[in-house]
Write a structure and sequence with these properties.
By secondary structure, the protein is mainly alpha-helical. It contains nine helices and five strands; from the N terminus they run ααααβαβαβαβαβα. It has two domains: 37 residues, no CATH class; 125 residues, Rossmann fold (3-Layer(aba) Sandwich). Helix 1 packs across helix 2 and helix 4 packs parallel to helix 9. The chain starts with 7 loop residues before the first helix and ends with a helix.
Length: 183
């Protein structure tokens, strides 16, 4: 609204069209309006995290899960750290590969997955990718990763949900992790 001088409805439509066409709203703003990605990320991630609950069950399930864990996000490292710290799970992650690391090219661009894999020396054939956007699992599966789609009913998340690139579908990530990480 502020950046483009639009009313709520028009800004919402523009944001959704940028998200669909460019992979992230930020990429659309960068491409079409020359928006600074650093300023954009700082602004959109300056949010109230008080509704995010501490997640002791998720913390315990992640503690039992073997192997390295990496966050791969179209958001910023700072935002990922803030959210995972609020959830009480930040300590379980060995690193974060964010939109800055990908030079502002969002998932599901195949080259971004290759950069993330190289950065963390990941063997895709022994890795699992957990994602809330089904289409973001297509490159992961093509590279040999086992994929887990955390299903939601939003249209942007279900796009690309048909196909063999999704190995597991879960509605509750914590419950699923608890099942697979039983001691």
């Amino acid at each position: 609204m502020q950046a483009l001088g639009l009313g709520w409805d028009d800004a919402h439509k523009k944001q959704k069209s940028f998200f669909r066409e460019y992979g992230t709203s930020m990429r659309g703003m960068m491409t079409m309006h020359g928006t600074s990605p650093d300023e954009y990320l700082e602004y959109v991630h300056d949010i109230d995290l008080s509704p995010v609950p501490f997640a002791p069950a998720l913390d315990a399930a992640l503690a039992r899960l073997p192997g390295r864990k990496v966050i791969f996000t179209n958001g910023s490292t700072k935002h990922a750290e803030n959210v995972t710290r609020k959830l009480g799970i930040l300590q379980h992650f060995d690193g974060i590969f964010d939109i800055v690391d990908s030079q502002f090219t969002p998932k599901p661009d195949f080259a971004v997955y290759e950069k993330m894999i190289a950065a963390f020396k990941i063997d895709p054939n022994t890795s699992v990718m957990v994602e809330d956007m089904a289409k973001n699992l297509i490159p992961a599966a093509a590279l040999g990763m086992t994929t887990v789609w955390v299903r939601t009913d939003t249209d942007w998340a279900t796009e690309g949900s048909e196909g063999e690139h999704i190995h597991h579908i879960v509605d509750d990530l914590t419950a699923w992790l608890e099942q697979i990480s039983v001691q």
